[in-house]
Amino acid sequence: VNLIAGEEVVPEMVQCDFTAAIVAGHMREILPDCPARDRMLQRLAKVRAQLRGPQPSAATASSNAADRAAAIILDVLRSNKRVEA
Question: 3-class SS at 4?
Answer without folding.
Answer: helix
